[in-house]
Amino acid sequence: MSPAIALAFLPLVVTLLVRYRHYFRLLVRMVLLRSLRDCLSGLRAEERAFSYVLTHALPGDPSHILNTLDHWSSHCEYLGHMGPVKGQILTRLVEEKTPACVLELGTHFGYSTLLLARALPPGGRLLTVERDPRMAAVAEKLIRLAGFDERTVELIVSSSEEVIPRLRTQYQLSRADLALLAHRPRCYLRDLQLLEAHALLPAGATVLADHVLFPGAPRFLQYAKNCGRYRCRLHHTGLPDFPAIKDGIAQLTYAGPG
User: Fold this and answer.
1) Tell me, what's the pLDDT at 2?
2) pTM of the predicted structure, to 2 decimals
3) Which residues pair with 246 in a beta bridge?
4) How many helices (H) and strands (E) does the chain have?
C-alpha cells in the first residue's frame, strides 16, 4: 500500500478509534493482556484473582471478599464479572423477593454466587451450575472461603442443558423461586424453555438474565416479551470499569404456563 493511500485512510482509522475506544480498551484488557498473562503464569485470571483474595480478604466475610475482587478487577486485572452496580441490583431484588430456592446458571468464578448467597433469607438454598471444571474449582474455594456450606450453596459441575432435566429427581429442586441466567447469552432462551418444560418455575417466579444488551440476548428478550407468560423489565447499567459500554439485567416475572 502506498503512503498516499495509507494517509487517505488515516482519518477513518482515527475516527473509528475515537468512537469505539471503550471497546478497544476492553479488547486489550479482556483478551490481549489476559492471554499474555495466562501464558506467562500458567494460571487463569480468575485463579490469579483468588490468590489475591487469599492474602487480602477476610475469610467468612462475603462482602469483604466481593470488595477485594472488585479492587483486583479495577486496579490489577479486569475480570469481566458482574461488578458492584449490577451487584446492588441483584442483591436488592433477592432481598425483595425472599426466594426459598435460587438457581444460578453460570457460576463463573463465584462472584454473583456470593451476592446471591449473601442475600438469601434464613433457610434459603442456592444451586449454582458451572460447566467449566477449572472455573468451578475456583468458585468452590471462594464460596467456602466466604463461609457458605453445601447445605446453603451447592455447586454442580455440568452443562445447564444436562442439569435442568435432573434438578427435580437428582438435586431435589422442585421449584426455582428465582433463577439467574449468567452463563452464555445464546443459551438463555433454550434454558428458559427447559425450565418451563420441566415445570420448575412457579407462578410469580423471578428470572434474571445478565448481559442481555452486551454481548446481547435478542432472541431471549423477544421471546420473553412476546410469549405472554412474563412481565418484563430491563435494568440498564454499564460494564464494570467501562460504563460507556451499555448493558443491562432483564427481570422477568413468570405469570404461569397460561
Assistant:
1) 57
2) 0.92
3) 238
4) 12, 7
Question: Residue 180 phi/psi, 5° resolution?
Answer: -110, 120
Q: What is the pLDDT of residue 185?
A: 97
Of the candidates 73, 134, 64, 130, the one whose C-alpha atom is nearest the C-alpha of residue 103 is 130
- The tens digit of pLDDT for each residue in 31-65 reads 888 999 999 999 999 999 999 999 999 999 999 99
CA-wise closest residue to 86 among 243, 232, 255: 243
241: left (phi over 0), alpha (psi -120 to 50) or beta: left
For residue 190, give every residue at least 6 positions away whose Cβ sits within 8 Å of its Cβ, in sequence order, or none.
161
Specify whether the CB–CB gap between 115 and 106 falls below 8 A.
no
Instruction: Give dist(CA 228, CA 169) in Å, integer.
Output: 29
- Is residue 117 a contact partner of residue 148, using CB atoms and an 8 Å limit? yes
DSSP per-residue string spanning 85-112: HHHHHHHHHHHHH--SEEEEE--TTSHH
Phi then psi dihedrals of residue 120, to 5 deg: -60, 145
Other Cβ atoms closer than 10 A to 52 = 15
Report the alpha-carbon angle 15-19-20, nearest 5. 115
Task: Please list the residues that pair with 247 across neighbouring strands.
Answer: 237
pLDDT at 16: 55
Q: Which residues contact 169 (CB under 8 A, 6 or more apart)?
A: none
For 125, other C-beta atoms within 10 Å of its C-beta total: 18
Confidence at 29, pLDDT banded by 50, 70, 90: confident
| Exposed e or buried b per residue across 187-204, where buried means at least 16 C-beta atoms within 10 angstroms of its C-beta | bbbebbebbeeeebbeee
